[in-house]
């Protein structure tokens, strides 16, 4: 009976040691789980902040693109008007050559002014078109970034 009692006490001691070991492992795992949860929450906040920043940049670039488009449209209209004026000046110049209007110097001056205006509009149009293209490229870059953010969040969810 003493031997059996000693054997049972030995088993109880072993089970208590095993139970303590398991409790330690469980505490460590709970601590690690809490740390991982805090880490994931921080990553989620950081990711949300990045998404908001990207959205703000996207809105800003969209405004710039709209402004550039409007400017390009306005410059194209002005360009068309100046081309009509240039055509009129050329017609007037031809008429002067035939002796039907004012002096050749006035026509030449008007043609030069129209040409200068036309060159200015063309230069401005090119600049606005370049800005529009640059804005479109920036929007494409932001769209690609948003796609990659979606992939990162999908990979993060799969990793859990």
TrEMBL record:
Gene Ontology biological process: positive regulation of cilium assembly; positive regulation of protein localization to cilium; regulation of cytokinesis
This protein's UniProt keywords: Coiled coil
Keyword Coiled coil appears in the UniProt entry: yes
One GO location term (cellular component): ciliary basal body
Coiled coil: 26-92
Similarity field: Belongs to the ENTR1 family.
Record's protein name: Endosome-associated-trafficking regulator 1
Originating species: Aramus guarauna (Limpkin)
């Amino acid at each position: 009976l003493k031997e059996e009692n000693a054997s049972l006490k030995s088993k109880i001691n072993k089970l208590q040691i095993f139970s303590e070991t398991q409790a330690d492992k469980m505490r460590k795992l709970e601590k690690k789980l809490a740390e991982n949860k805090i880490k994931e929450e921080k990553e989620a906040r950081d990711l949300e902040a990045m998404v908001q920043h990207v959205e703000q940049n996207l809105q800003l670039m969209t405004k710039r693109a709209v402004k550039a488009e409007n400017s390009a449209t306005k410059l194209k209209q002005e360009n068309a008007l100046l081309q009509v004026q240039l055509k009129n000046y050329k017609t007037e110049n031809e008429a002067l050559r035939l002796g039907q209007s004012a002096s050749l110097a006035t026509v030449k001056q008007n043609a030069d002014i129209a040409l200068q205006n036309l060159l200015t509009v063309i230069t401005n149009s090119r600049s606005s078109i370049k800005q529009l293209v640059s804005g479109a490229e920036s929007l494409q870059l932001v769209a690609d970034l948003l796609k990659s953010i979606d992939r990162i969040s999908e990979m993060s969810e799969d990793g859990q």
